[in-house]
C-alpha cells in the first residue's frame, strides 16, 4: 500500500494525480494514435477495449508485483491532460519498480515528459522506498531515450530482437538508476 496522501504531485508546471472518470476523452485522444502505440508494441485499442482499459486504470491496485500506479499529467496553465506516468512494481521483495510514460504528441517538445518522469522517480524513491527504478524502451524511440538520458539514468542493457510486433523483431534498451544515485544527483 502506498501513501495516497502524498498525491497529487506538483512540479514547476505540472500536476500528477490519479485518473478520474472525466479524464476519458483526453486519455482517448492519445490512446487512439498509431504513432503512440508504435512503441508500445500494440495497435491502438478499439473503442470498447479502450473503455475497458480506462476502467482498469481507474480501479488498479498498487500492492503486489505486477501492479501499476498510473498518474495523469496535467499542465497547470490550462489543465490540459498531456500524458501519463506510471510505476509498475517489478519486485516488491527487491524494492524494484519500472517507470513508464505515454505522452500525447500534441504536447511534445516542451519538456513535460522529462519533468513528469523526474517527479515520478523521486516519488518512487522518497515516498515508496524503492531501491532501483528502471525503464524499458524501444531502441528506435529516440524521444524516450532522450528523457531517461536527460534524467541521468544509465543504460544497463541492449536486448536484441526480444520483442515482435506485426512480424517485425525489435530491440529494447534498459536504463536504470539506484536510490542512492538519484539522491546524490548523478
Please give a handful of descriptors for the protein shown:
186 residues; Aminopeptidase; eight-stranded mixed sheet; 35% strand; globular
The first-to-last residue Cα distance is 29 Å
- Which blocks of ≥5 consecutive residues have pLDDT under 50? none
Q: Classify the secondary structure makeup into a structural class.
A: alpha+beta
Rg, alpha carbons = 16 Å
Strand order of the largest sheet: 1-2-3-4-5-6-8-7
In the CATH scheme, the class would be Alpha Beta
Question: Strand count, sense and closure of the main sheet?
Answer: 8 strands, mixed
Shape designation = globular
> Which percent band covers the strand fraction?
25-35%
Can you walk me through this structure?
The chain has 186 residues and is α+β, with helices and mostly antiparallel strands. The chain has one domain (4-136): Gcn5-related N-acetyltransferase (GNAT) (Aminopeptidase). The protein contains six helices and eight strands. It is globular. The mean pLDDT is 94.
Amino acid at each position: 500500500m502506498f501513501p495516497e496522501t502524498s498525491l497529487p504531485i506538483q512540479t514547476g508546471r505540472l500536476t500528477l494525480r490519479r485518473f478520474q472518470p472525466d479524464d476519458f476523452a483526453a486519455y482517448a485522444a492519445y490512446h487512439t494514435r498509431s504513432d503512440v502505440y508504435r512503441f508500445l508494441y500494440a495497435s491502438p485499442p478499439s473503442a470498447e477495449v479502450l473503455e475497458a482499459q480506462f476502467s482498469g486504470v481507474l480501479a488498479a491496485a498498487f500492492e503486489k508485483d505486477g501492479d501499476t500506479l498510473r498518474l495523469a499529467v496535467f499542465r497547470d496553465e490550462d489543465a490540459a491532460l498531456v500524458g501519463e506516468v506510471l510505476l509498475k512494481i517489478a519486485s516488491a521483495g527487491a524494492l524494484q519498480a519500472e517507470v513508464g510514460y505515454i505522452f500525447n504528441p500534441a504536447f511534445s517538445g516542451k519538456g513535460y515528459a522529462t519533468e513528469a518522469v523526474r517527479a515520478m522517480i523521486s516519488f518512487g524513491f522518497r515516498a515508496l522506498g524503492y531501491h532501483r527504478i528502471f525503464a524499458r524502451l524501444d531502441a528506435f524511440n529516440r524521444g524516450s531515450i532522450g528523457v531517461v538520458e536527460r534524467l541521468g539514468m544509465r543504460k544497463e542493457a541492449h536486448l536484441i530482437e526480444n520483442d515482435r510486433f506485426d512480424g517485425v523483431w525489435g530491440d529494447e534498451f534498459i536504463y536504470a538508476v539506484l536510490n542512492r544515485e538519484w539522491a546524490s544527483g548523478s
